[in-house]
Task: inverse folding
């Protein structure tokens, strides 16, 4: 477990990690095919921060699940743990440049992989996460071909459920 007051980078307060995603998802259908679960939820709180190999840091968020849109393995409970690369506090942050850290209170639609029971990460980083703002769904990624932002949450949920 990381004691977050330990320095991560003594030269800078904010550090960005560059990544190359193993898979690229062009459509909602592609995301759903690989997803163990698709949920509508709210980021409730930071559950823990941990240090992994090569001094990478990770944040585990507690997510309240409002809707279960799809599940292949076990159905998500009313809360899940969401694992994301990066961490932040008042004095320092480390995050993936194109996959910013979630914030407490974010309302989201997430395409997830379950790596342990009840523990998930987002497929394709920014590709598998969609934010809900004022009743509309917005993507961090502009290359999802079957999706033209923004759309209402009801329309987006229908698109996910219809994807085969």
Result:
């Amino acid at each position: 477990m990381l004691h977050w007051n330990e320095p991560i980078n003594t030269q800078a307060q904010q550090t960005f990690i560059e990544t190359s995603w193993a898979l690229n998802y062009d459509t909602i259908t592609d995301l759903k095919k690989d997803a163990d679960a698709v949920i509508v939820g709210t980021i409730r709180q930071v559950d823990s921060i941990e240090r992994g190999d090569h001094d990478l840091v990770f944040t585990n968020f507690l997510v309240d699940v409002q809707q279960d849109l799809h599940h292949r393995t076990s159905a998500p409970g009313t809360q899940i743990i969401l694992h994301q690369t990066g961490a932040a506090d008042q004095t320092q942050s480390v995050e993936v440049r194109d996959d910013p850290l979630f914030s407490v209170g974010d309302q989201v639609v997430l395409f997830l992989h379950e790596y342990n029971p009840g523990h998930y990460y987002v497929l394709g980083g920014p590709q598998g996460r969609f934010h809900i703002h004022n009743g509309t769904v917005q993507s961090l990624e502009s290359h999802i071909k079957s999706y033209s932002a923004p759309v209402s949450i009801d329309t987006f949920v229908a698109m996910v459920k219809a994807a085969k």
Q: What stands out?
A: The chain has one domain: 23-162. DSSP finds two helices and ten strands in the chain. The chain has a mean pLDDT of 85. The longest strand covers residues 37-51.
